[in-house]
Amino acid sequence: MNSGIKIIKRGTLGKPQSFPLRHTEKTDRERERETASTVQGWIAEWEERRHSLRVAAFGLVLALDRSRQTFGQTVTVST
What we know:
By secondary structure, the protein is mainly α. The protein contains 1 helix and no strands. The radius of gyration is 32 Å and the shape is elongated. The model has no long low-confidence stretch (mean pLDDT about 80).
């Protein structure tokens, strides 16, 4: 919603003469920085997810190894 007061004088068309607003566009360098920052964020999220999955998988393998050791079987883990 556009709030403001509009004054219309008699004998005019009702549209005040306004100066065109300068449309500020981002420069190529700003866009590149923004894109690089976004991609770096994606990579950081991917690496964090990958690390947590590896930790969870390693924990699962260790738990399976411990449970199999109680039954006399062994599991080898290669990294």
